[in-house]
Amino acid sequence: MEGILNLNKVTSLSNEQCDTIINLSKNLQLIADISQSDIFIDCLLPEGNAAIVVAEANPTTTQSLYKNSVLGQIAYEEAEPGVLFSLKTGKPVIGSRGISQEYVVIQQDIVPITDSLGFTFAVLIKERDISSVIQTQQKVTKLMKNENSIEKKHAIQSIVIQEIHHRVKNNLQIISSLLRLQMRRSSSEDVAEVFRDSISRISSMAMIHDYLAQNGIEEVDVKFVIKQIADLFSSSIIPGQSIAVSTYGDSLFLPSNRATSVALIVNELIQNSIKHAFSCNKGKIDIYVNCRKQMATITVTDDGIGMNEEVISHEKSSLGLQLVELLVEEELQGILSFFISERGTKVSITFPVIDKVM
Fold it and tell me: Do 325 and 221 sit in the same domain of this protein?
């Protein structure tokens, strides 16, 4: 979501200054997407004690801090001191903390916007939620006061591991954003499809690290992550398609490396169904997770046009299914099975729920 106010009505800026903001606002969405942050342009009010939000862009590559638009809202000095400091002094402020209009603890990076005379008439602001950072700092402070050194060591180690997973997730999301930007520059549909497939794979991996960062454990509930992948596909179906992706079955906890393999496998199988199974752009994909006596079976079924031996042989030569076979056999020490039918397709993977097969 992006927008800009009618600058002539809400500010006393010159035509040159208004043109600068208008031209800059054209790139706000790209800046928001690549930085995975909410981006704003604020101008100082005539009274000098507050600023007004005149342009905004919310990222499409991650969740925004804001449920509603903040265009036209007032930023007061006590809530956002960095913004007012930069507007008044013309100096950048990096890492300033403030409170958003929706009362979230945020970090702001602020740079001045100047006219041809060097006068600061607005600021460009990047905001991100640091509530989790504050909570982590509070946990560390509390732990440092704990006299039990063993408990302290284990707790700090857990926090460090969570932070590592959080940073890996962020890095993967940045890579996805870069690929999206590159995809938009391509005029080839074949190239765009390769980009989309790569972005989808990276997003599946990022979900694992997000789960680990949120839960602070080194085991992943695979069913929970598969449901997230299914929801992602359901919400990003190609316009004109009506394909429901649903998840059923048992919770299945696996170490992070094996959970990542399962996430990539399920991602590829869903993608394959969406691309090839539905001639009428309508249907459903069901994913079943079953775990019995240390053996897990994950089945992906669709009600599409089905496959025969020839089609299966052709599909197995694709990069996606080659990746699936490699992950099933090498990473999970499992078995990949296709079930031939004229009404729908069923693919299952079966593997032992242990780290290694002795």
Answer: yes
Domain co-membership, 180 together with 319:
yes
Closest CA to 43 of 103, 129, 130, 119: 119
CB atoms within 10 A of CB 334: 24
Whether the CB-CB separation of 20 and 41 falls below 8 Å is answered with: no
Burial (Cβ within 10 Å: 0-12, 13-18, ≥19) of residue 1: middle
Q: Which long-range contacts (CB under 8 A, 24 or more apart) does 116-121 make?
A: 116/16, 118/90, 119/90, 120/86, 120/87, 120/89, 120/90, 121/13, 121/17, 121/43, 121/44
Between CA 312 and CA 45 the distance in angstroms is 66
123 and 196 in a common domain: no
Query: What confidence category does residue 123 fall into, taking pLDDT thresholds of 50, 70 and 90?
Result: very high
Q: Is the dihedral of CA 220, 222, 224, 226 positive or negative?
A: positive
Beta bridge partners of 337: 348
3-class state of residue 281 by DSSP: coil
**Domain boundary pick from 96, 129, 162:** 129
Same domain, 220 and 74: no
Paired strand residues for 41? 55, 124
More confident of the two residues 62 and 290: 290
Domain of 107, CATH number, reads: 3.30.450.280
Percent of the chain with pLDDT over 70: 78
**Enclosing domain of residue 210:** 144-352
pLDDT, position 167: 73
223 Cβ neighbours under 8 A, 6+ residues apart: 247, 249, 250, 251, 252, 289
Indicate whether 178 and 284 sit together in one domain: yes
HEC profile of 11-64: CCCCHHHHHHHHHHHCCHHHHHHHHCCEEEEEEECCCCCEEEEEEEECCCCCCC
